[in-house]
Request: fold
Amino acid sequence: MEIVCLDLEGVLVPEIWIAFAKATGIPELEKTTRDEPDYDKLMNYRIEILKEHGLGLKQIQDTIATIDPLPGAKEFLDKLREKTQVIIISDTFTQFATPLMKKLGWPTIFCNTLVVGEDGTIEGYKMRVEKSKLATVKALQTIGYDTIASGDSFNDLGMIEASKAGFLFRSTDAIKKDYPMYPAFETYDELYDAIMGVIPE
Reply:
């Protein structure tokens, strides 16, 4: 049995932190997992910038409320879910993801949780498990699933490498150059056809 594991930001929805950086005029917040492979380092960097500017969860959620899925994303997801099981595996947080899941038709998502103070300040975060994307696909494999994974960033490479098949989607030129063994696609139709190509009839 196959199960498809998809990244969220950059694959199905725009990058939340980039949208927030533009909304607030703080370019330092545009850095994502496409730029920084060390997620802990990236998140601690973001939290420090938020504190410097007096920004908290509400301001980020206000921005998220304005974000829609990428054009064609919901249709792609609906079409894929008619054929196979799909889980979104993301390093984002439940406090960010819930409104976006509503717009995507409530697919299953595995993500993490922010630690938020009473005043709305983001004080830290709790990862579900270390290397959560890789750990999740390995766990799915132990219960009888062949995983097929797709993502765009450094933190997706572990689950892509560990899966029966893995694909880059709308990734950076640098990642595509460094990981030429993974087919790279730019459209949902291409990704859908590639996934269907490795799922037995």
